[in-house]
Write a structure and sequence with these properties.
By secondary structure, the chain is α/β, with parallel strands linked by helices. The protein is 39% helix and 18% strand.
Length: 136
């Protein structure tokens, strides 16, 4: 049986732009895990942007996966895991080396195939926020 970590993140910079609070993500992910009989061994939560690498809790979680404490991650959406190429590449590398055997998202379908990993990398990189200018 695959052991999963739940990872919930919200950006701390702009509270009104948040899609789901950490509490709402946790509630949805716990229900998703229950409905899909996923074995959750730990929950990780973090309030920090994922636009740049260096999130402490995220890095702790991946270190625990590298040590074999879990083989899967359950997150609300890929953009909760990574919004930069370094963190995204690290996750994809862990999938390639089978340290991560399963990634689950209620809002995104993923399969560990070459096409699936490509689509995941696109999801990581297209989740960056875009600032628009108002044209008068």
């Amino acid at each position: 049986m695959i052991k999963y970590f739940i990872y919930c993140r919200k950006s701390s910079e702009d509270e009104e732009r948040q899609v789901l609070s950490i509490e709402a993500q946790l509630a949805e992910l716990r229900e998703f895990a229950k409905q899909n009989n996923l074995f959750i061994v730990r929950e990780f939560t973090e309030s920090k942007t994922a636009k740049e690498p260096g999130r402490e809790i995220f890095n702790q979680m991946l270190s625990k996966i590298e040590k074999g404490n879990a083989e899967g991650i359950l997150a609300w959406n890929p953009d909760r895991l990574a919004r930069n190429s370094i963190d995204g590449g690290r996750i994809i590398y862990l999938v390639d080396t089978e340290k991560i055997q399963s990634l689950k998202f209620p809002t995104f379908w993923f399969e560990a195939t070459p096409q699936g990993k490509f689509m995941l990398s696109v999801a990581f990189l297209t989740c960056t926020s875009v600032k628009t200018k108002k044209i008068i």
